[in-house]
Each structure stands twice: as structure tokens, then as C-alpha cells.
Fold:
Amino acid sequence: MLAVIGGTGLYELFEEVKEEREINTPYGRPSSPIAIGEIAGRRVAFLPRHGKKHEYPPHEIPYKANIYALKRIGVTRIIAPCAVGSLKPEIKPGDFVLPDQVVNFTRREDTFYDGPDTTHISFADPFCPELRRVIAEAARELDITLHSHGTVVVIQGPRFSTRAESEFYQRQGWDIINMTIYPECALARELELCYASLSIVTDYDVGLKGRSDVKPVTAEEVIRVFRANIEKLKELLKVVIAKVPEERSCECKRALENARISK
Structure:
């Protein structure tokens, strides 16, 4: 089964919600009951990461419970739409980005393996190459502006960056900034799930250096731009879901092979 983790507006992806699953996990309850429906003839699960009423800020999302619950109900692939800020002038609000690298600046629990079995997953390439390829193909078909590579820096939140922080991220050459992609992507890899982020650019982070015409980001502006692009996102997700192969051919499903230290 494939899952979409995203905002509550994406419930409308389903023509009909077939069921809602309440899941208990060793890490507590997920952000919301998991909705299950059908899209393009495929069984799809949907989980609003911030909760149905957007009650969980980025630093309080139950990431471990969310990913564990999806694994428990049989999910093997996750597509995770989210809002991001741009760190480069050529990546504009309204564009989509398909990141291939992540830099973590959060202070969150980010592993299922606290012992006794010491486990070190390979995380050189944090996002599933197979899902990324399918998303890029679908965006080309729909003539949607999508940047097919990029490094996302993930910050703790819930506040936005200072000017000095944003300038630092820009000097590193990083492309976009977000508050939720990590630890979602790492936890998914630890459970051998495929994971790809589908990022919608909603703003220029704090304002780009040297661009006095760009104002600092506000929550109101982020929501406005995200909602303005929600129909385009839903159209893209439906095409992607129809295109995803039945069988996985990527290495995500073997992430735990040779990851554990022998006793």
C-alpha cells in the first residue's frame, strides 16, 4: 500500500474514504486516525502530519508513531507533500521541488533503534530514487514546474529563521528550507519504507540576500501560496499514484541488510 503524508486539504484526493484506522504504537498514537481510500485503482492511506485540526506544530509531531503506524497497516511507500521556503532566486514561490539531499538542524528523536541491537542504516541518499523518478515523469507530463534536485535544510521550528541563519544556509549553497521532512525520511528508511518529499515553494526564506523587494516570510503567506497550489498538487499526486510500479526495485526495502553490528 502507498501512503500520502500531508495537509488536511488532501483528504479530497479520495472519492470516498473507505475506512479510518485508529492505531496504537509503542511510540503513542499518530497525529490522526489513518484514512484509507482508493485512487487510480490503488489502495492509498492518508495521514495528516499536523493532525486534522493542525494541532501539532512541527517540533511536536509524533513522527515515530506516524511512520510506525503506516508500516503496521502494510504501507511500503510514502509520498510526503509539504511547504518549503526557497533559498535561491531561481526557485520561485509556486514551483515544486523534488529534493535529493537533506541537512538536519533539528533536535528530535530520529531513530527506532535505541538498543540493544545497534543499527546503522545507510543514508547517503535519503529519498527513494524510484519514487523520485515517477514524480519527475508525472510533473513533465502535466507541464508542472519542478526542480528535480535540491538540498533541503530542516530546522527545528516552529519559528522561522533569523536573517543571519538564512544567510548562512544560502552561503552553503542549499536550495530549500523546511520544518518537517526530517526525521520523517530517516524513520521511513529505518523501517525499509520508500519515502519521497514533494515540496511546494511558498516563500523566499526571510528574503534573499541582496533582494530588498522580498519581504520576510509569514505563516499567513505560506498558507496562502500552499492553498493556491493545492489543486495542482492533487492532480500531480493522482498521476504519480497511477504510475508507481506494483513491485519495488529500489534498495529501500533492504535498508537493514548489513546495518546491524554483530555481537
About this structure: Residues 89 and 211 are 9 Å apart (CA to CA). Residues 2-254 form a domain with the Rossmann fold fold (CATH 3.40.50.1580). The chain has one domain: 2-254. The first strand starts at residue 2 and ends at 6.
